[in-house]
What does this fold into?
Amino acid sequence: MSVVVYDTEIIKAIPLKPGDMLNKCFAANVKQEGKWYIASCLPLDVHSQGHDEGEALRNLAEAIKLFVESCYERGTLDQVLKDCGFTP
It folds into this structure.
């Protein structure tokens, strides 16, 4: 089992609403477990999987985007990011 750390540039900007954008880069750990690759964004506690590293990272990017959008819609994004150690 290997662990590789990636800087997931694909999640650099997440549109939240017109004129409002989240610009953050999130680190992702990718490890292989059997036939699956598991991608994790540990600071946000968001995880996904895929048949290869690329698919796992694409799926993680989508999961992070949905997580951030959900937090934003509920009005909790600032607090969630603060709790995860991100600063403005």
User: Anything to note?
Assistant: The beta strands are 3-8, 13-17, 20-23, 26-33, 36-41, 46-50.
